[in-house]
Structures are given as C-alpha cells and as structure tokens.
Design goal:
Blueprint lengths: L2 E9 L2 H17 L3 E6 L14 E7 L2 H9 L1 H11 L2 E9 L3
Antiparallel strand pairs: 1-3, 1-4, 2-3
Length: about 100
C-alpha cells in the first residue's frame, strides 16, 4: 500500500528557504518519493484561518518508507534549514487498499 506526505508550509524567509530546497530533494529521491502535487495557488475551503504559502503531496512505495524518509539523517539535515525560515504541518498517511 502506498504512503503519502501531505505538507502545508508557510515561508518566512524565501532566501533561506532555498537552502532547504537545495537539500530536501536528495532525501526524497533516495526514498523514491514521487511528486504528485505542488502549489502556491491554494483556496481554503475549510479548517485553515488563512491558506498556507504552499502545499506539497509526495507518494512513496509504502507508509513505512514515507516514515523512513522523514526520519532519515538526510531529511533531518534539510529540516534544520527549514525550521529557521518556515513553519510546516506534515501528515504521513496510507493510501487506499
């Protein structure tokens, strides 16, 4: 069963965020992530007071691999750079059977 990351990100410093964007793809590629959707043109229908700056959806071969990617040393290093310039809400979930 596939696993998914669904991330909602608010960027406070776009210049510093580029450091994160320079590191995160290597971790995602290592774990076979497939980018399904990425966008900044977001309409809030329910649940958010304001729309996030960006939303991203990645597909992995399994839920376990999605978790492994998030907890990997490579992604955690990238996350250190993101934490200084952006806030994120990330969900990891199973796909349908």
């Amino acid at each position: 069963m596939k696993g998914y990351w669904v991330a909602f990100v608010n960027v406070n410093d776009k210049a510093k965020y580029q450091d994160y964007l320079g590191l995160a793809p290597a971790a995602l590629q290592k774990y076979g992530a497939k980018l399904l959707s990425r966008g900044e043109d977001i309409t809030v229908i329910e649940g958010f007071n304001t729309p996030p700056d960006r939303a991203v959806v990645f597909e992995f071969e399994s839920y376990d691999i999605a978790l492994q990617c998030y907890h990997s040393p490579e992604y955690q290093e990238a996350k250190k750079h993101r934490s200084d310039c952006a806030s994120a809400n990330i969900l990891i979930m199973n796909g349908l059977k």
